[in-house]
Amino acid sequence: MLCLNILLLVKDAADVPTVAAHLTQAMRGSRAEPGCLRYDVYHSQAEPRRFVLVEHWADQAALDAHRLAAAYTTIYKPLVMPLIDREGHPATLLGEGDPPAGARS
Question: Strand 2-10 to strand 84-91: parallel, antiparallel, or no bridges (unpaired)?
Fold first, then answer.
């Protein structure tokens, strides 16, 4: 399983409603894709320009297919990405799979 946490910061506060609408639409499409185990979009209450995406994909092939699918290619990439700064964080879900790097057994 691949886990991604993606931090988004909307460049212009005036674009927050537009980004929120596009992310909601992209989330709905992404959740229907094969291999999507989780796709959640969070809007920060403390920092209104901040959104967080939490994605879990069955494997690299599912993630690769997602990046070719309509939600990514027709919504996220062309309509959201120009309006945001993005910071991706591939992550390990604790309690799942391998222990974190440096952990002792």
Answer: antiparallel
